Amino acid sequence: MAETQVETYHFCYDFSGVELSAEQFWEVEKIIEVFRQELLNDEGDPIVFFQFGCNHDRIEWDDQDFSHMEIIPRVTISLDFEELGAGRFNALTPKGVEGLLFRGRNKKQFNNELLSALVLERDRVAHGLYSDLHIPKIQKHMNKARGAILTSFRAAMTNWK
Q: Contact at 8 Å (CB) between 142 and 55?
């Protein structure tokens, strides 16, 4: 039986001591890619209020609060595009949101912070669904991801006249 090699990715990720195999790292990257594809494939109406958060097996997102969902992420981030647009526009399409998150100026920081939060969320749930393990660190990474989005948004607003 082949032993799974443990890789460390400390060069750009803060997993707070959580070690991942290459396969586990790939699983987390796949969850982020599924989130991206959901945004790209959504033909829904433009989004005024965007909210997202990490569950252990997927990134939940919606254009309203999560109160109607069965499993609500413990840490969520929200963006109000009407407020951020400051009168220039009041909403983004799901594809526009994907562009802001994954193709914006701070796309690498956004991806790294989201990946770190997701790794910690998966480890938290492995210790019990109602565990509070890593919650402050997950909040820190999600807030940094939000900061990366806002920086990308401001850059796009500067370029858009």
A: no
